[in-house]
Amino acid sequence: MSLDLENATRAPASGTTRSGLRQRFRVLAAGPSTPDRLRRLGAVLVLGCVLAGVFSLVDGSARTEAVREGGTRIAAVHADAAELYRSLADADAMATSGFVSGGQEPAEIRARYDRDIADTTARLVHAAGLLPADDPAAPALATISEQLPVYSGLVESARTYNRLGYPLGQSYLDSASRLMSTQILPAADELRSLQARALADAYGRAGSPPIAVLLIGLAALAALVDAAVREGRRTQRILSVGLTVAGAAIVVALLWWVVATSVASGHLADAGRHSGVADTLDDARAAVLQARSNESLVLVARSGGAADSGFTAAIESVLGTPTEGNGLLDIATDAAAPDTDERIAAVRLATEQWMTAHRRLRELDDGGIYRDAVASATGADPGGSGAAFDRLGAVLGDAIDAERAAFREQADAAAAALNGLAAGPAVLAVLAAAAATAGIARRVEEYR
């Protein structure tokens, strides 16, 4: 009996509590009194400020992460891909150059080939460690890893037969160069292109206008200003401290977003331009190396000038045709900053000097003076083709390194501009919510 009585007394109390809560919520949501209206207004203002803070935190974190990933992982793989392409093309050029001297390959050419293969292997390992397994570029990296030992084996076989004086060495060399040009280099180019697109996409996300954040922030600011003006008219007061502080915090947060993203976007655009110029010059360097490989192959095969079309096509891709232009150096000049023009002009001059030396080499070979043609390709004569090729490689390398350094500088500046963007405006939005709550609460207290 006592338990039944106790339960009977508890049930109505619980029901009364729930009924009271519902009644209070109903009054708060639709109560006609001024305090109820003020509480509703405060809830709307706090919600707007909190939403602005949440969007600011999410968007700011995404942009900061995009710049960080673009400047570290993606940029590193992109650099690895560019150096992979260079090392592979240079290795092939050195492999063919070694055959020009006959059975005894020059030590410096062999050392350069070995260094290129070692650099390629190191870059492959580094890129594989940074590239996710499901990345679209993973198959290209796998192709290079699988075919590089095959290529090296063909080159070693070619060297062995060449030292023995067997013509079969040239067949192995041709197979190695064909494997390099049809499978390995295209895979390296695909890897580089995919990473360039990934880098552009990351920087595009980081530098895009923060439309959602600005719209929500402006909506919250408009609500705060409207509330302050209306309450000022009702109470005949000029200033509500809480609402004023809240509005000022939102204004600072919005200005932070506008300034940070504008500065970062400018730096990212510059970084993208430097990266694009470096990629174009990388293409020019690859074409130069392919031209060098063709020059050596024609000498080894003693095919004469009729087989020199590969050299001509590669150099025309760098300099453009006499009638149309539009070579890789023209493209780089159009995209580059004015301070880069001088470096690209130096590359053009060095390319033209190599072309002149190459024409003299072809005249020697076609005239039956084979030993002098070989000396031009492999000797240290400053007027020879080999020396001119080395000068061109050095000038191209300096220009590419300068563009890569400028890219890193601009990328770091963009990252610095976005420092604190994830947390700073979000904290200001929370401060605005607290100030709005305090301002409305003060008005509610006046009605008690």
Automatic annotation (TrEMBL):
Record keyword Transmembrane present: yes
Keyword Transmembrane included in the entry's annotation: yes
Superkingdom in the source lineage: Bacteria
Keywords: Membrane, Transmembrane, Transmembrane helix
Segments passing through the bilayer: 211-229, 241-259
Name of the protein in question: Secreted protein
Organism: Pseudonocardia cypriaca
